[in-house]
Amino acid sequence: MTDYLLIIASYLLGSVSSAIIVCKIMGLPDPRTLGSNNPGATNVLRIGGKKAAAITLLGDILKGFIPVLVANLMDVPPIILAAVAMAAFLGHLYPIFFRFKGGKGVATALGCQFGLGWQIGGVIALIWLFMAKVVKISSLSALVSMALAPLVVWLFWPAPELVGMQIIMSAILFWRHRSNIRNLLSGSEGTIKDNSDPGDQV
After folding, report:
1. How far is CA 184 from the centre of its chain?
2. What is the pLDDT of residues 109-133, one digit of tens each?
3. Which domain holds residue 28?
4. Domain annotation covers residue 50
5. Cα–Cα distance between 95 and 75 in angstroms, integer?
């Protein structure tokens, strides 16, 4: 019973939209109605600036980090840990409180990875930062880091359930970023310093 409650609580926490709540508290427009209409940190940056975006990003990371860390500290089996992580991630993508229309999931996925272990989250974050420094394209940096995430999980915690979870999570992230991938292939994806970028990443 405890395992099921953990999974349900993880999904419900993931369903709390940081972007919508931050915008409401700070008196900003609903992120679902402006910009890319995506309730994520990138769109909040576009609508409300760096402070609002930073708070949103932190909230999205914590939604993944907290439930996975709690489950980890409870020493649940890897299959339950994987289910808790996936529940938080899917809650962000398909929030029950907001008509199942959520963000793209990179920040929450990273939070889940830090919840599994600081080494896992740290390496994946470093891959993102390295790519961002080199190519200066946020979406490409996110896609490369998440493509390598299953390998990172396998290196530090080679449980088949966790590696499988990360493969599924990365595949969903690629699907959610299909518009960014089209923009990358056409050469129209904006850089990190370009606020006119046509797509969001988180």
Report:
1. 20
2. 999 999 999 999 999 999 999 999 9
3. 2-186
4. yes
5. 27
Contact assessment for residue 64 and residue 14, using Cβ atoms and an 8 Å cutoff: yes
CB contact at 8 A, 177 and 32? no
* Structure tokens given for 88: 């938080």
Tell me, yes or no, whether 54 lies in a domain.
yes
Classify residue 194: in a domain, yes or no.
no
Q: Structure pTM?
A: 0.90
Give a three-class secondary structure readout of 150-174.
Answer: HHHHHHHCCCHHHHHHHHHHHHHHH
pLDDT in tens, 163-178: 999 999 999 999 999 9
Q: Give the type of residue at 103.
A: G
User: Do 113 and 121 meet the contact criterion of CB atoms below 8 Å apart?
Assistant: yes
Quote the number of domains for the chain. Answer: 1
For 201, which DSSP code? -
Whether 202 is covered by a domain: the verdict is no
- Is residue 78 within 8 Å of 156, Cβ to Cβ? no
